[in-house]
Amino acid sequence: HNDRIKPMLTFLPEKYLFAVYDRWGSKIFETTNPDEYWDGKVNGKKNAPPGVYVYYIKITTSGNVIDEKKGTITLFYP
């Protein structure tokens, strides 16, 4: 039972962005806090419908190296 998701980091970045988008490209979650999770809610209010969502992560290291990742999250309810 996984009811929240966040990137797992092995260091504390200088800058951090984690965002989740719906299939129409609307941002439904965003945080700059590496300890904050997405709990499957749209803008923190109601549960997002089941489906595939896109995540975007942008991290800046202490050496000023920028790393960006994109991928998908499949959300479903048992």
Give a written overview of the molecule.
The protein is mainly β and 78 residues long. 0% of the residues lie in helices and 46% in strands. It has no helices and six strands. The chain has strands at residues 15-21, 27-31, 41-42, 46-47, 51-60, 66-75. The strands form two sheets. It has a four-stranded antiparallel β-sheet, with no helix packed on it. A two-stranded antiparallel sheet has the order 3-4. β5 and β6 (66-75) form a beta hairpin. The mean pLDDT is 95.
Largest sheet: 4 strands, antiparallel
Shape: elongated
Tell me the structural class.
Answer: mainly beta
Total strands: 6
Average pLDDT taken over every residue: 95
Count of helical regions: 0
Percent helix range:
under 10%
Give the helix/strand layout:
Blueprint: E1 15-21, E2 27-31, E3 41-42, E4 46-47, E5 51-60, E6 66-75
Antiparallel strand pairs: 1-2, 1-5, 3-4, 5-6
Distinctive features:
78 residues, mainly beta, 4-stranded antiparallel β-sheet, two-stranded antiparallel ribbon
Short summary:
The protein is mostly beta strands and 78 residues long. It has strands spanning 15-21, 27-31, 41-42, 46-47, 51-60, 66-75.
